[in-house]
Amino acid sequence: MKKTERPYLFCLGLAAAGILILILSLCIGAVPVPPGKVFAALNGTCEETYINNIILYTRIPRVCAGMIAGAALSSAGVVIQSVLSNSLASPHVLGVNAGAGFAVALVLAIFPFSIRFAPAAAFAGALTAVLVVLFISEKAKASKTSLILAGVAIECIFAAATEAVLLFKPDALAGYTDFRIGGFSGVPMSKLVIPGIAVPVIIIGLLLASHYLDVMMLGTDTAQSLGISVKKARVVFLGAAALLSGLAVSFAGVLGFVGLLVPHLMRRIVGEGSRPLLLASAIGGAILLSACDLLARTLFTPFEIPVGIIMSMIGDPFFIFLVFRRKKRKYD
Amino acid sequence: MIEINNVTAGYEDSPGRAALAGLSAVFPDRKLTVIIGPNGSGKSTLLRTIMRFLPAAAGTIRHNGVDLEEMNEREIARKTAYLPQNRPIPQIRVREMVLHGRFPYLSFPRQYSRHDREIVLQALKDADASELEKQYMHELSGGQRQKVYIAMALAQQTDNILMDEPTTYLDIRHQYETMRLLKRIAKEGRCTVAVLHDLGMAFGFADQMIVLERGTIRLQGTPEEVYSAAIIPEVFGVDLVKTGDESGKTFYYTRELQHE
């Protein structure tokens, strides 16, 4: 794929595609709603109560959930890949999402009515996983491949721990429908308030600090020689990635592969400049998850499948493709 | 100018790796100082300690008269540029790469200014890399890439430049080109320090040399002084031969030790 010379124009095009997906997601579903009625429902002039309910309480939260989670996980993927200079890394592959998921399950198992603390718990879990990855990366001086293997191990440990929690307290995650694979079914707007504010703020912060990511991609020694305190910067940026992942997991569950797939795709189009890459990945992630969710709830109408299943169907083969491509390059 | 005084350093987690024991030296302005020594003698460790990538266990290090411990990373980066031997090759354009040399002057969250871009163009010109400006880093040859890295160091506008094996992996023509460039940079006023493996190249281009052996300075002086001290066979296990051409220019080359 040829890189574009005008990455921001491409982002603008992506944003337009995002608006189109947004409109489609609001119109299409088990009950089709024409665009006119969607707008009427949005500005409070629709007289049909059931359409109001569908748009305002089912589809709007769902589309928002897809867009927030997609933007958050993709941006987290860009940050993690840049900071660790590792193209196979992502919040899912390194067990960051699983860490967040375990923390949410644990907190809700102990304090069943503390769902509003889910984002904080998810952040704590994600941060723990990130710090373990960082520790392995720095102290054990793990190679890029070893780090991914360590990440897979961390992911398995947290996933097993989540299962253990659910064994003792099966209804711990009663507030979620597809937590362990990830999905947006029945997400209430109340769960989206904090992520809806925090995710855009963090992404804007990352866009403003993107020069740091650019320099960190040049390798630890070069970054340090250009005046970055690499150790501190790694903790700050990976902390931001953990926060983004945690916020997404707090309402969407343990969604995989968005954070791996989207940054790769966007890097091929807009190049490695962190600012356009972050922007394109945030918008691209929002589009991808919303589009996949649209598929998830329309493919087998009136039944729907969790969006996490569709993401894994696309993401797993993509991950295998990346592994093969790296191996091929190595022997070029 | 960089001064080190009685510096001791090492890798805590890998005691087998080179450690420095009580090193003192001065790296003057306007001079190309070349550090030589066998593998594991502490050449790279010395550069990394000067940059504080590795903390010195004892001793003092001064960049332009300022104690290293009194500076933050950005202040160090404004005084001394460092080019490591190994680094990932980013898929970005050359001018963006060189622009990274302006990072130590960038305040949050400002964009690079026109002034920064003018400095980048000048740095590319000074490093004979102007024609590479629009190319991608991963498409360049090793020699071209080295010029770009040097241009980045020049854009950093520091008084001191440290380079770890800048000629390794380059073909011979590019090795000479790189050394000539370093020599010119030094002549223009910078304190220029390079770790080199090729003794012929080191003796041919250095203004001053430091010979490291097992973490200590065996000898420092001009190439002529180091040659006259006849320590090369003992330190490196090879003979160093000095010769000249009809124009009076001196050349050095190495050969296997000649056993009588």
Please estimate the helix content of chain A: over 70%
Series of secondary-structure elements of chain A, N-terminal to C-terminal: HHHHHHHHHHHHH
Span between N and C termini of chain A? 20 Å
Structure summary, number of beta strands of chain A:
0
Oligomeric assembly = heterodimer
Order of helices and strands of chain B: EEEHEEHEHHHEHEHEEHHEE
* Poorly predicted runs of chain A: 328-332
Mean pLDDT of chain B: 90
* Global outline of chain A: globular
Strand content range of chain B: 25-35%
Number of helices in the DSSP assignment of chain B = 9
Write up what this structure looks like:
The complex is a heterodimer of chains A (332) and B (260). Chain A is 72% helix and 0% strand. Chain A is an all-alpha fold. In chain A, α4 packs across α5 (118-139) and α5 runs antiparallel to α10 (230-252). The longest helix of chain A has 35 residues, at 49-83. The relative contact order of chain A is 0.18. Residues 328-332 of chain A have low confidence and may be disordered. Chain B has 260 residues and is α/β, with parallel strands linked by helices. In chain B, the strands form 3 sheets. Chain B has a 6-stranded mixed sheet with strand order 6-7-8-3-9-10, sandwiched between helices. In chain B, strands 2-1-4-5 form a 4-stranded antiparallel sheet. In chain B, α5 runs parallel beside α6 (172-187). The N and C termini of chain B lie far apart (44 Å). The chains are: A mainly alpha (332), B alpha/beta (260). The interface between A and B is medium-sized, with 21 and 31 residues.
